[in-house]
Amino acid sequence: MQSEGEVVTFARQRLLRRIKAAREKIWLVSPFISAPMAAAICRAATDSAVEDRRLLTALNAKSVQCGVLDPDALKQLYECKFRIASIANLHAKVSLVDTAWGLVGSGNLTAAGLGGDKAGGNFEMGVLLTRNQLEIVHGIVTSWWHRADGVGMREIERYAALPRLPKSPIEDFGPKLPLPLTADLEEILAEDSATAASRRYWINTNYHDPKDEHWWKRDWVSDGSKKPYEVGDLLVVYLGKENGGPQRCPAILRVTEPSRYDRAFVLKKRDFAAAEKWPFVTRTSVVADTPVWLGARLAAAGKTYHSVQRGCEIDRQEFEALAYAMLG
Questions:
Q1: Element (H or E) spanning 85, and its range?
Q2: Which of 84, 147, 166, 295 gives 151 a disulfide partner, CB atoms 3.0 to 4.6 angstroms apart?
Q3: What pLDDT, in 10s, does the model give residues 242-291?
Q4: DSSP assignment, residue 109?
């Protein structure tokens, strides 16, 4: 559900779901577009059956030769019945779906720009438009569209023939921050009902560790009593308010080995208090994670802190509600 004025950092799934459910129009504005993202947009748009599909971009030689605007992406969108137009100095990034949803931000229509790419990506930021802002932005984009030049297959092929520029020998400067992992979770949410019913789903309540915010990547969790986890079960990690915790669910883990009582293991990895309190160890792997402040709230699944305080089993519907909330 849209929250007007909400700040959005990783918009891939939010945008694709909106496109898939579109009923009136799909208007996209971006100077840079990648072929994988164009393919995802086309799949979603085909499901929507909306005819008013538009892409406003900036078709210029430099962008194509540098590889930030892929002519193959334009070809896919063109064949998917998107009308394409170009303004040479366009740099805005806008998504308008129907008349009630819009996003303006820094992210281009690329896997890196919208998040969710296994190969990496960018840290971006956008804002979901309020109703008043939607009217203003709709008017601006309409004005740009009428002043832009149309792009057909002839223009796309002409730019596609340009030689690509070599990559710079100088490496990027500064750290690359870890991005949310979501690809595996998207596959789980798309699986058939029989597969979905073949495992169990849990909320695993834990403490927040401000010194190690992504502790779940250590490949194990521990509980105070032996849980009936089975290999393949999915655990939604919930961080409560202890230690200044976010009271959110920022990760989903998959059980890889049966639980075991192993106080010595916990003592070696943690401390005496942890070994006494949570001696039952379960090996896990990360299915999805996100920065803690972007984690799903329990309310998405109709849960409260008191109902999950010791961890609990949840059904598939509750799992999906938390998973989709994690994806934005």
A1: strand 83-86
A2: 84
A3: 888 899 999 999 999 999 999 999 999 888 888 999 999 999 999 988 88
A4: B
Same domain (yes/no): 154, 229: no
Return the percent helix, strand and coil in the chain, to nearest 5: 35, 25, 40
∠ CA 160-78-120, rounded to 5°: 70
My answer on whether 129 and 217 are in the same domain is no
DSSP letter for each residue of 158-198: HHHTSPPPPPPSSPP-S--PPPPB-HHHHHHHTS-HHHHTT
User: Directed axis angle between helix 71-79 and helix 153-160, to 10°?
Assistant: 160
Say how many domains are in the chain.
Answer: 2
Q: Tokens 């909330």 map to which residue?
A: 325
How many other C-beta atoms lie within 10 A of the C-beta of residue 327? 23
Which pLDDT score, from 0 to 100, does residue 3 have? 66
What would the pLDDT profile of 48-83 be if each residue is shown by its tens digit?
Answer: 889 999 999 999 999 999 999 999 999 999 999 999
273 inside domain: yes
Q: Is 60 exceeded by the pLDDT of residue 38?
A: yes
Note whether 205 and 240 are within 8 A (CB).
Answer: yes
Last residue of a domain, one of 160, 194, 221: 160
Distance of CA 168 to the CA centre of its chain: 29
User: Residue 188 maps to which CATH number?
Assistant: 3.10.590.10
Tokens describing residue 119: 């190969």
The answer to which of 31-35, 174-178, 231-235, 251-255 has the lowest mean pLDDT is: 174-178
- Give the rounded distance of the alpha carbon of 208 from its chain centre: 23
305, 196: one domain: yes
Element (H, E) at 131: helix 131-147
- Is 175 domain-assigned? no
Domain residue limits at 42: 7-160
Residue 37 covered by a domain:
yes
Structure token pair of residue 320? 């999906």
Structure tokens at 77: 């969108």
